[in-house]
Amino acid sequence: MIKTDILIIGAGPTGLFAVFEAGLLKLRCHLIDALAQPGGQCSEIYPKKPIYDIPGFPEVLAGELVDNLMEQIKPFQPGFTLGERADTLEKLDDGTFVVTTNKGTKHHAPIVAIAGGLGSFEPRKPQLENLKKFEDNGISYIIRDPEVYRDKKVLIAGGGDSALDWSIFLADVAKEVTLVHRRNEFRGALDSVEKVQELKNKGKINLITPAEVIALKGDQKLEGLIVENTATKEQTEVAVDNFIPLFGLSPKLGPLADWGLAIEKNAIKVDNTLDYQTNIPGVYAIGDVNTYPGKLKLILCGFHEATLMCQSAYQRIHPDKKYVMKYTTVGGVEGFDGSKKEAPKAVVKTIE
Amino acid sequence: MSDVKIKIIDRDQVSHEVDAPTDMNMNLMEVVRSYELAPEGTIGICGGMAMCASCQCYVLSDHVLPEKSDDEEAMLSEAFNVNANSRLGCQIHITPALDGLKVELAPEEL
A118, B78: Cβ pair inside 8 Å? Predict the structure, then answer.
């Protein structure tokens, strides 16, 4: 069981900054995120896009902002459970919480701060009949162990980097690799596109474009796919053992919606007059995942919400302690790793 | 302040005629959200960067719209329920030329 002071669900910019504000109050944090890397949407959807409304940064790339936040919170040694989705919230008799992920990892904390953004990122699934039936029998959306595909006939659908990269990788592993995309153009790194071209010329990748998979074939397990040329409408059947649709990720509020939280407009209602607490005392919601009158889904608003949430969390954890907010320019930043940052002392010396 | 009239058929097939301002730097996705014609969280998920297809719509009138950018073209090539008249609402800037535009919101991706 992982134990911490504030359990943060979602490692986007708001969740990351909460670690800093909590650290100033000597509270430790642990973050859970369904994605494999921290940064949330900033890392997953638009790492190379500039952001212009972060105070003090006339322009910063979303990916750089995440790097900066990771650097800023490093002294506070946050824990991470990445690649796992927070599935259940259980309130114990003593008022503390246990959050369990889809992989069974348990986390225990007196405070839960949901910084879940738009929800957890789930693979986009094609809209095909009998999709569910084959999900464990030939269809997968994420490649965990490439060895599964050794000497198999694999069809990958998609036009982005992951479709290209996995086609290249599996060309050496699988018996047959077919890549299907709705257009002739691919949007991926140039060298990946060139590599696929080269493998296609060598006959190691069977490329079908512009086309899409329109039907699944098979009794118990997947045996074939019907691929339709989107221009000519001509249909061909491709015999496969595995079908890997790689259409990117889309966010879903998911299991959070069943935690007994008050939800409005796909977001969690919070008390914005005080501390962004939800209807469950001890559970807060900050950043894009919450809603209140006048809510704006901006990173800078998430930072503010994270700051006030930490003050309230401190009071809940230490009801008897008095606390006065300190400026970092005055108090410096003392990390849990023993590091200390502070303003250099002015030199007092007589000029003769 | 100058408005144009736009007809929007929502995902429940209900038709709405709304006033859309041409002087507020708005796009069609934002117009749909401002009138709450689709629930928050189901449209404009990426915020208008042509990086999701949650604002996909079908253009039903014969207005001449600006060409699709590479980003929009690429996104639509990966979206579902795409037709020849599909566009991303976030890439359609509201201009006086759009007066009388008629669109239908594409189904939500589940």
Answer: no
